[in-house]
Design brief:
The chain has 159 residues and is mainly α. The protein has one domain: Cytochrome Bc1 Complex, Chain D, domain 2 (Orthogonal Bundle), CATH 1.10.760. The protein contains nine helices and two strands; from the N terminus they run H-H-H-H-H-H-H-H-H-E-E. Helix 2 packs across helix 7. The C terminus is likely disordered.
Length: 159
């Protein structure tokens, strides 16, 4: 009887581990770090820095959709829940601009809706969104008059 109870407990524990999957930091290492680097700084001219753009883009509904639709996110092997948790972790742990109060966490349903339609023209969509951000910016998260470099050759000027 004791063996049966122990076996049942081990099976239940194994099931819990499988359901939880990896933590977001590990998912970043396994799925994102190869291109975006250990600190999220990317590779100038090739891979954008998430440090300088993830939180900024997340302030716009179309920016959030863009982030989810980039091929690396849209086509990752992670579940919608794991992807949402990873994006939230990245915003809080890798960003040079911390999320402001009221930052809306990514949700599994949001990820599930948007990732079905991966972007084909990533660079042009990113440029359009960054221009939109620079025109519509409210109070800047950085000191007045300073520029925020969002990615190589892309600058958003604080007002």
């Amino acid at each position: 009887m004791r063996r049966g109870a122990l076996f049942a407990m081990l099976l239940a524990t194994a099931g819990l581990d499988a359901a939880w999957g990896y933590q977001p930091a590990v998912n970043y290492q396994l799925n994102c770090m190869g291109c975006h680097g250990a600190d999220g700084s990317g590779e100038p001219g090739r891979v954008p820095s998430v440090r300088r753009s993830l939180v900024l883009l997340s302030t716009l509904p179309e920016g959030r959709e863009y982030i989810i639709r980039v091929p690396g996110v849209a086509q990752s092997p992670l579940s919608d829940e794991e992807t949402a948790a990873l994006l939230d972790w990245m915003a809080r742990n890798l960003s040079d601009i911390p999320p402001r109060p009221g930052f809306i966490d990514y949700s599994a349903s949001e990820v599930g809706r948007s990732r079905r339609h991966p972007l084909a023209r990533v660079r042009s969509e990113r440029e359009r969104l960054l221009k939109s951000l620079s025109r519509a910016r409210g109070p800047s998260p950085v000191a007045e008059g300073k520029a925020v470099v969002v990615a190589p050759d892309e600058v958003v000027t604080a007002r």
